[in-house]
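pinned: reference chain
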Amino acid sequence: MNLIRSLSLLALCGTASARLAGLSEEANGAELGDRSLSGLYAFRGAVGSHLGGDLCIFDCDGKGVCEGQVRLNLPNPPVAPERITFIGRLDATYTMGADGFGEMSLQLFGDQPQAGPPFPVRLLVTERQGSKASRLSGEFEVPSAFVANALTRFEMTARRSGGFDNSSLDGVYALTMLEGSNEASATGVFTFDAEGGLTGIIKNNDPNLNDGGASRVLSDHPVRGTYSVDDDGFLTMTITNTVTNNTDELTLLVFEATGTRADIVLGGFDEDSTYGLVTADFSYVGQARSITKTE
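pinned: its structure tokens
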């Protein structure tokens, strides 16, 4: 009897496991379509070879329509090396195929009531949860005389809507930065106090201007600064080198979050860059006390 019961239980468990596996496969294999883009998505794009950048949030209705906000930073050739910062809104219509390929028609609105010309965007779902697109990538050509025919590559990820503030950055974040098209880079560790203050250390890797960039210079820079986070997750960050007193300002966006805590913050837009647009990625590491403890 014990053997028969054991075999029966094994059979039941096997049947239940098969059913669960079938349900999982069915969920993962759910067909994609217009409804797959539903809710809010955070977006970051790079224009050309780090010529410019854009940060957006899209709110999609699952029926073929999205709207949102955008921050653009582009070169201004007539008055180089100055750059143009564009803050506006966007409207879009889209279609999504069952295979994960999609198309979008996007229009930008600035200070003027009329929109710029619509331009086509190509999309691809790269991660999904059932029939919902959780991460996408794509490209489009920038319709601007400032960066004519420059291709923009982007990624976007599903994210909560609203509820962010300065307390969303609380603790230690690892930083990676890229300036221009691999001309200069940096890594760093920042501590945010959840109230708008920050301290950190940045380790730079720059071309040596004294020999025309034939060699490179490694340097450490202690920094302090302030930051401000709005409800939508857009950030403005001011960083001051405590030795030279040089100050940089970055515009960023919460890209991924756990609740209202920012896990990944992306952006850049350093207007004083020597080599081109600066992109910055902050990744949450943990609470300050667990990182600084030396015992």
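why pinned: Residues 1-12, 14-27, 291-295 have pLDDT under 50 and may be disordered. Residues 2-28 form the longest helix (27 residues).
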